[in-house]
Amino acid sequence: MLPPLINLDNGDKELFYYEIYDLVINNEQMPVLETLRDNGDKENYVWDDECLINKLGLNERKKYVCRINSHTKWGHNLKWSKS
User: Fold this and answer.
1) Which residues constitute the domain of residue 52?
2) Residues 26-58, buried b or exposed e (16+ Cβ, 10 A)?
3) How far apart are the C-alpha atoms of 33 and 38, rounded to whole Å?
4) Structure letter (DSSP) for residue 13
5) CB within 8 A of 48, min separation 6: which ones?
6) Are the C-beta atoms of 81 and 16 separated by less than 8 Å?
7) Does 82 fall in a domain?
8) Staple 66 to which of 41, 46, 47, 49, CB 3.0 to 4.6 Å?
9) Per-residue confidence (pLDDT) for residue 16, from 0 to 100
């Protein structure tokens, strides 16, 4: 998958390039992750789902839950879209 070359509003071009890693959790780490999930969103992290990623952090009320950059959406969907 090639990263998209984006035309910026000022006429410059931007290349989205980053690496995607799989989260591999061992048996010792799993209960800690489950506790974090069960405690919900905090100031330092937010549990996102596919809908929130595709809306770049906007919830149903059009309020930002968190700011998600378009390269996260691109990496999640494995394709580029402007919307």
Assistant:
1) 5-77
2) eeeeeeeeeeeeeeeeeeeeeebeeebeebebb
3) 9
4) E
5) 57, 66, 68
6) no
7) no
8) 46
9) 66
C-alpha gyration radius of the chain: 16
2-43 residue pLDDT tens:
566 777 788 888 776 666 677 899 999 999 999 999 998 888
What are the tokens at 38?
A: 């069960």
pLDDT surpasses 80 at 80:
no
Write down the pLDDT at residue 39.
93
Residue at token pair 């580029």: 80
Which helix (H) or strand (E) segment holds residue 5: the answer is: strand 5-7
Question: What's the structural domain count of the chain?
Answer: 1
Q: How confident is the model at residue 83 (pLDDT cuts 50, 70, 90)?
A: low
Residue at 83 is within a domain: no
